[in-house]
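Narrative of activities, Objective 1.

The group set out to show that a structural description can be obtained from nothing but a protein's sequence at a throughput compatible with the screening campaign. Below is one input-output pair from the validation batch, recorded exactly as produced.
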Amino acid sequence: MKNVSQPLFAEERKKEILDLLEKQNKVFVPDLCDFFNVSPATIRTDLRILDNEGLLKRTHGGAVKLSKATYEPTSDFKLSQKSEEKKKIAEYAIQLIENSDTIALDTGTTTLELAKLLPSKHGLTVITNDIAIATFLEQNSDAKVIMLGGIIRRGFNCTAGSFAAKMMQPFNVDKAFIASNAFSFESGFSTPSTEQAEVKRAMIHSAAKVNMLIDSSKFNCIAFYRFAELEDIDQLITDNLLSSEDRAILNGYQDTLKLAIV
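Output recorded for this entry:
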């Protein structure tokens, strides 16, 4: 970041902070002090005000971008985003699945890429709340497919809510593959939909091993509803565009978390 050429009023400075967050998802107090040539106290005041207004999320030493509470792009839109990264994540994840496994497959465009590779495995039992995944597997694999019932989320090709979550609860699966709309080290894994969060939690609790499939663009973002922490998963699979700073932090969890960067 280059320093601003002249002092800014508080409102101008706050707008500039939000613009920076749009570009890089997170900001740090020391960097902002240098950028605006103001004191740490001034920056902390700006961040506190913006946090109170619901425009960002303060963290230790800075702030992260806050996703709008209920906004979520449709499945059709998400299919076009980070498609190569999602395919690489799926190609790694398929290696974790063995013939005759029982798996829970969360809804999402990354998990859909994984589903497209499942016909190479045999004797699987797949529990999912994703209509596109269930349809694909029924037509293209020998897997036993269990479709979770519940309210259909129009535009997202999936079921969600307490009915779907309760249907998931009695199952014990070998592996779960979960997707997330957002992740930050302070606020964990989150999604704009409380109904979708219920199903994700149920899948996590039902699995012997939990794998999180999340591309690097979702890091340092926060959505409305938290459904899991790093401690709740066994392996995190992401792409090689992940920043060196985030890699270093994740490596600090290596005693309890396996990290796969593909």
